[in-house]
Every structure is written in structure tokens, then in C-alpha cells.
């Protein structure tokens, strides 16, 4: 059951995303699974100043709207990711300055692992999704497929999507994604990345994935 406390927390987290300049005006959208339902920022809403009347309440399984508020045009991939990823309860689509600049480059970076935070939090492999019209079924399908086995994706000529188990994990993931892209842009393309051996070393001693 979604409560007033859930809605207020969702608004606070949306404003947090805006305060960090991950979205501006009507760019980007946010969703949060609560049981069998999800809160989704409404269509045309401004995430940085999201208001209660612009929050849509939907069934995750079907997308049925429960409170009469139309969800974001990107709700197709939000709900699709939540269905495919039972380990993730939050999805954020954002358009931060440097990551969006990278999404519009003629040559997209092949490797984003400029610092240890990227493989540790964003993902050592970041899928790059071709341009599809925002809100289209093709875009939704591509994002759902990309995030089935990854936590972050770059949408060419569009923006970024990250998913995670809670708001803090998603916020951290988005911020480090933006940090990596800022390094890539401000270096003028003259940057180095962690080697596979250095990433393996992180997995042993930082992430604890290996014995």
C-alpha cells in the first residue's frame, strides 16, 4: 500500500536529483517500486520541482494507472526494467551536462573506466543504445534489454538511465556516471582507463567478488 510518507519520500528524492543538476526542467524521469505498485513522475512534470499532483501511481505488472495521473512517456522502460530486475526498485532517466554531451559525440567512448568509482558503482561495461524516439516502444525495448544485465546505459543523442536497489544507490550511480563523462570531456579525449587487471584487482579487494 502506497502511503503519504512514500509520496513525500519520492518527491524529496526527485528534488535531490534536480538539486544535483542531473535533470533540468522537464528532462528526465524517476520511478520507485513499492510492492506491486510503482510511483512514476508524471508526463510533462519537472523532476527538480516535482509536486504530488504530478506523481503517477501504477501497477508494475500491467502499467495500469491507479490514481488518474498519466505517467512519464518513458514509463514503458521504467516498468519494464522493474519487471525484469526484481533486485532493483528504483529507475532514473537523467540528462546531466557532461554525460549528455558524451551521448551526443560523433565517436562514443568505448571504455568509461577512468576511475575506480566507475567499475565499482556505474558498471565496468556501459551499454550504448542507438537513438530511438523518446517514448517509443523501440526505445523502451532497447533500455529493458540493456539493463537486464547492466545497471547503467547511455542513450545516444538523448541521455542516460540507471537502476538500483534504492535511491542512494541510483543517485551514486548517476553521479559517478556524470563524473566519468566530465573527465572524458574535460580531458579533450586524452584520458586513460583502468586496465582489465586493475579492474580485477578492485573486484578482489574492494568489491569482494572473489576469494
UniProtKB/TrEMBL annotation:
GO terms for cellular component: cytosol. Pfam families: Aldolase_II (PF00596). GO terms for biological process: pentose catabolic process. This is Class II aldolase/adducin family protein. PANTHER family: 3-OXO-TETRONATE 4-PHOSPHATE DECARBOXYLASE-RELATED, FUCULOSE PHOSPHATE ALDOLASE. The keyword Aminoacyl-tRNA synthetase does not apply. Keywords: Lyase, Metal-binding. GO terms for molecular function: aldehyde-lyase activity; metal ion binding. It comes from Segatella copri. Residues 8-185 form the Class II aldolase/adducin N-terminal domain.
